[in-house]
Fold this sequence. Notes:
This protein has 393 residues and is an alpha/beta fold. It has helices spanning 2-11, 37-54, 77-89, 102-115, 145-156, 171-184, 205-215, 235-239, 283-296, 302-321, 326-333, and strands spanning 24-30, 60-61, 64-72, 95-97, 118-121, 138-140, 161-168, 190-197, 221-227, 248-252, 270-273, 337-340, 343-347, 354-355, 358-364, 373-380. A 6-stranded mixed beta sheet has the order 2-3-1-4-5-6, with helices on both faces. The protein has a 4-stranded parallel beta sheet with strand order 8-7-9-10, sandwiched between helices. The protein has a 3-stranded antiparallel beta sheet with strand order 11-15-16. Strand 7 (161-168), helix 6 and strand 8 (190-197) form a beta-alpha-beta unit. The relative contact order is 0.14.
Amino acid sequence: MKRIIAATALALGLGTAPGLADDIKIAHVYGKTGALEAYGKQSHTGFMMGLEYATGGTMEIDGRKISVIEKDTQLKPDIARAALAEAYGDDEVDIAVGPVSSGVALAMLPVAEEYEKILIVEPAVADSITGENWNRYVFRTGRNSSQDAIANAVALGKEGVTIATLAQDYAFGRDGVAAFREALEKTGAKLVFEEYAPTDTQDFTASAQRVFDALKDEESRKFLFIIWAGGNNPIGKIKAMEPERFGIEIATGGNILAAMKAFKALPGMEGATYYYHDIPQNPANDWLVKEHQARFQSPPDFFTAGGMSAAIAVVEAIKTAGSTDTEALIETMEGMAFETPKGKMVFRAEDHQALQSMYHFKIRVDPEVEWGIPELVRELAIEDMDIPVRNGR
């Protein structure tokens, strides 16, 4: 009788064995709503375009259709945990991708371990995700705080430079400053002050004044380095307070195009970025730029490239493993190299962090362009950055 049921199921295309006719189920668990909604939208657009690109438009891997289930974290850790558990348990997804927020990602990591299913973190940044809070089911295509920090330290740090930081008071900001502090130690620059502000801060007057007081008597070249994600970006507000009165220059890393409108007031500013559509030269980025411009009448943004990279990693891993079995995927993905809009990425075996290029830029202003344009000074390739392993392996 069991043979008859199995034969009937196969005849109907239902499938009773993994890898035959069953769909490949992927959950994209991200902040569809909330303060980082723009980041989430870009990430999802890039993810779906990446699946299309990596499958040659078929949205299939080895004859199996790809099914993507979206879940909204609302940027709340408890909701994110429940959404991921529902995806693994009730929806029986093979793999999950997300989220946007570092604090939310940290809440999701134990769920992946509990269900023994892979979570590809994209684009949350905090070092602790692939550091002290990491487990073997976690991979990350997004850059981490150390990659940001080392790249920006290269851009800003040198003998005779004094720096203060302003960052958001949660995992993204604090991990970012910690990594930046460590990276600066090798450059000869001095980090003399750290200021942290709540993510919903509207008035930066007190924070800026503390930074000014910390830097104003320094006789070296002086920078305020800002690490900020989402709304309420303080760059424009602090620039309006005229830090140049004290010889203080504002510096920051790359960001989405909307946030980089504030960069037009900072011509010549240097920093490092994860992605800008005009910088990488490779087939995946050429396709992304062309298709995104045609479909949305705008270039792909910061997190669009990240979402596409995660999708390419998913497809490459399943194709190479020949399976959606978790253990087979982990074995395949440890050390796996794959081509993205940023060029080659490699999942480091020790912590599953994707090693990747970063880009030292200098801002150029073009009156015909709405944002400050980050022109490439130097590509920092995988080999140029010594990214610490922080998970104890």
